[in-house]
Each structure stands twice: as C-alpha cells, then as structure tokens.
From TrEMBL:
The keyword Magnesium applies. One of its GO terms (molecular function) is endonuclease activity. Belongs to the DNA repair enzymes AP/ExoA family. Residues 7-251 form the Endonuclease/exonuclease/phosphatase domain. This is Exodeoxyribonuclease III. The record marks D221 as: Important for catalytic activity. GO terms for biological process: DNA repair. Probably binds two magnesium or manganese ions per subunit. Mg(2+) binds at N10, E37, D150, N152, D250, H251. It comes from Pseudomonas kuykendallii. The record marks H251 as: Interaction with DNA substrate.
Length: 261
C-alpha cells in the first residue's frame, strides 16, 4: 500500500506567487497539485522552475485571467482534455483533465458569477451544467477520479464564517448550491467534508477586514472523489501556513491523502 497526496491551490497569479508555490511544493510534496487562476499566458508558465522542483506539468493559460494547471511529482501528466465537452465555444481557460499516478484528475476553476443576477451569473450556471454532465460520464466510467479545484460555491452555512454579508453573493446563491448538490447526488464524495463532518474548515479568506486574522473564512476549494476512490480516503487538510505568508494568495492549498494499491 502507498499513499497518494492530491492537492488543489488557487494560486491567484503564478508569476507573482512562484516563490510561495515552490516553497509549498518542497515542504508538502503533493504527488499531484491542481492549480487555478494562473493569470498568465501559456508562454508565461514557469515550467523550468517547476521541473527543477521535481514536477512535470500541463497547463492552459490565459492572459491576466483564469488559467489552470496539473502538476505531477516525478512524471508528466498525460493530458486527457482541456475544456468541457459541449462547451467548445467558451474561450476561458477553466478546465484541464489528465491521468497521473494511477488516477484521473481534473483541475477546475468554476466561474465566480458575480455580480448576480446578470450575465456573469448566467455564465456560471451554464458552465456548471456542462460540468455536471461531464462529471456524470466520468463517474459512470468507474475510473478512479478526483475533481479538484476552486468551485466558487459555499456548499452549506457550515462552510462560511457568517452568511450575513454574503447573502447576495453568487457563491451563496441557492442555484449555485443546488448545482453542487446535484454533483454529490451523482455519487461523488466531498472529501474534506467527509473527513471533517462536524468541523468548520475554511480554504479561503479574502484580503479585507482582517478576515484571515479573524479566521473569517469560506470553504470553496473542493476535492470530489469517485466511488472507487472514496473508500481510500485516509487523511485531508488545509495548509493554512501558506495563507499566512507575506504576499500570498487569498486561498490556502487543500489536500487529501488516498491509500492506493
């Protein structure tokens, strides 16, 4: 038996946060790391530094916005797809899927959807529908799959420090939560909530009003496990020390450990 550590991290700008990313990779050594919000074009992705840290990578960049990547320790991930099927007209870099270390992993950056109501919220829900449809096919394949990323959804009131100031936010809307619940009802397991069923666990603290210092956080970074992987979940957590670094992302890396054959 061996353990496989899979992490997701909204880096919020890979060029400006590269030293933080490299420090995290060295200290925590995930086997697979899914990154979001690269905010860099393909040619701006620091592949040489990442290879020097012992990781292969695939990525889909975009100038100034979005962008996703999958890193794998000691190997190059085998790309399966970029973008969601049926959504080929979408020019935003938000979905990347690959095989690495015996699992299929997706790195996704679901649209924020603010302000709502409006076109951005409509785009969020439409993207979500494409994702739900694709996720159903992945689940039925019976492959071991991890859907990891920034979902921009607060699943329940237990996943937020206080709902009052977020009631109009797209992350908290009933439609957003209903889409996430439909994913779980397909048969996916929310790994962090499964491991911490009764605890308030946060993955994001915005830069305003001392939310980090007050632990006024949200849980919006999720790792969903297929039926074959859910029983293998052994550990999970949030690398809060990364959020405490100077000039860091407003997200902290979130990870799971799976017991593999």
């Amino acid at each position: 038996m061996s353990n496989l550590k899979v992490a997701t991290f909204n880096i919020n700008g890979i060029r400006s946060r590269l030293p933080i990313l490299l420090k995290w990779l060295e200290r925590e050594a995930p086997d697979i790391a899914c990154l979001q919000e690269l905010k860099a074009p393909d040619k701006g992705f620091p592949i040489d530094d990442i290879r020097a840290a012992g990781y292969g990578a695939i990525w889909q960049g975009q100038s100034s916005w979005n962008g996703v990547a999958i890193l794998a320790k000691g190997m190059d991930p085998l790309e399966i797809r970029r973008g969601l099927p049926g959504n080929e007209s979408d020019g935003q870099s938000r979905y990347l899927e690959a095989a690495a270390h015996g699992v299929i992993v997706a790195s996704l950056y679901l649209p924020n959807g603010n302000p709502q109501p409006g076109p951005k919220f409509d785009y969020k829900l439409a993207w979500f529908e494409h994702f739900i449809e694709h996720a159903a096919g992945l689940l039925e394949s019976d492959h071991p799959v991890v859907l990891a990323g920034d979902y921009n959804v607060i699943p329940t009131d237990m996943d937020i420090y206080n709902t009052r100031s977020w009631l109009k936010d797209a992350l908290l809307q009933p439609e957003s939560r209903a889409c996430y619940q439909r994913l779980l009802e397909q048969g996916w397991t929310d790994a962090l909530r499964a491991h911490f069923p009764d605890e308030r666990i946060y993955t994001f603290w915005d830069y305003f009003r001392q939310h980090w210092q007050k632990n006024s956080g949200l849980r919006i970074d999720h790792l969903l496990l297929s039926r074959t992987l859910a029983p293998r979940l052994k550990d999970a957590g949030v690398d809060r020390w990364v959020r405490d670094l100077p000039h860091t992302s407003d997200h902290a890396p979130t990870w799971i450990s799976l017991e593999m054959d």
